[in-house]
Design brief:
With about 425 residues, the chain is an all-alpha fold. The chain contains 15 helices and no strands. The longest helix has about 55 residues. It is globular, with a radius of gyration of 21 Å.
Length: about 425
Amino acid sequence: MNWIKGLKKNRLLGVTSANSMVIAIRLTITLGVQRILAKSLEEYGIAKIGDLRNILAMLTSLTSMGVFSGMVKFVSQNENEPHELKKLMSTSFLFALGGSLVSALVLLIFAKPLSRWFFDSAQFAEIFYALAIVAPAIGLHRIFNAVVHGMSQVKKYAKIELVAYIVSALLILIGLYFNHLKGVLLAIAIGPFVQLITLLFIFGKTLKPLIYNIRPKWHDKFGNALLAFTLMSFVSNILLNTVEIYLRDVLERVLNINEAGYWTAITNISKNYMVFSTAIYSLYVIPKFAKISTRFDFKSEVFHIYKTLLPLFGLGMLTIYIFRDFIVQLIYPDFNGMAPLFKWQLMGDFVRLAAVVVAHQFLAKKMIRSFIASEIMSMMLFFGLSLVFIPIYGTEGVVIAHFVRYVIYFGFVTWLIRRYFLKTP
């Protein structure tokens, strides 16, 4: 029974199993919520919700100045050094203060133009006013969440995610009932505040010693290092979400709003199962890679991650593909144009998983140039290939571009990592 003991000691499987419970419950809730939204708001509403989620993703990076991955790395490295952790928190608060104030100011001033730009009407300006008010909560939640991940508090992270998701889902349904699309968008906009309150309620005792009597202050040791992560986050996050918003607009103009809704729906499904891997990156991969210094140890760890995760993901994705028609009718009734998108989206996500595991070495070792080069290349490929493929293959062209982009990205990232270790003594 040595293999059973080995499974119990497998830290990655521990993270995976704890997180899988949350994902399973989250997916169950998502089935119901997305079905109700699809039936009530149809393709137009789903597409506009997609735009708002892209805006929120950019705000998450901007309000925290993109220091999440850096925080995870430094919390992991200084977990047993309370004095150093206080310096880190003090510096990160300064980043969050600056990012939140600037973001809130821009949202308040340009609420109506942004409403017209994204929703074709000034009547949705309230959404951006709400985001401006919530901006500080977004930044603080991101900072505190990084501490949870850096300390690898798997069980607490699972509780935080589950409670916050359930409350957010209820708010969305309440918003839909009282104010249709605008109500849903407002509920999504205030979601980060719910996440912050949940995190403080569950993780507050651990955070209290780190934030007690602390003020935003610059510490060179962490400030200069976190700036590098700010740059990497901005390049990755802002580029990705800008490209997604633009491509959704291209689909609407070149084809129709229904096609934009189909692509948003398939990316929603993708994001829900890829959340499973996202947590693993920050809870396990970055802290682990941060402590590895040799090529042999890196290769061994990557092989261990692949051996553990890829079969699980592969089996899950195959199951999704087999039951794709059932899934469409269950979650997005009458979104019949979605079915052909599954094949390329799933294959692209599988390659993406393998590639992004390796690419987290860039974040763990602060390889700024390599990270920026790979991200820009990836986004340019996705954007360019999509514009080429959409007139030929329709909406399917975007997911074909998604797959091709990650195949090339995987090769490029592998080459960059290999070059890094050849130069490292």
